[in-house]
Amino acid sequence: MLKWLSIPLCLFLVLSGFALAQNIAEDTDNAPRPVKLVPPPPPGPVYIRCGALFDGKSNQLETNVVIAVEGERIKQVGKFSPPAGAQVIDLPNLTCLPGMVESHTHVFLQGDRKPGQYDAQLLKQSVAYRTIEATTAAHAALDWGFTTIRDLETEGAGYADVDVRNAVNARLIWGPRMQVVGRAMDVTGAYPLQPAYAWDVPVPIGVETVDGVEGARKAVREQLSHGIDWVKIYADRGGRIHDNILDTIPTFTLDELRAIVDETHRERRRVAAHATGLLGVHNAVEAGVDTIEHGNYIAPEDMKTMVAKGIWFVPTPYVAEYDAQWRAQRAGTQPRESPGLKIQEDTFRRALQAGVKIGFGTDVGAFEWDMSPSRQLVTMVKWGMTPAQALRAATIGGAELMQMQNDIGTLEAGKYADIIAVQGNPLNDISVMQKIAFVMKGGLMFKK
Ligand SMILES: [Zn+2]
Question: How far is the CA of 153 from the centre of ligand 1 (A)?
Answer without folding.
Answer: 7
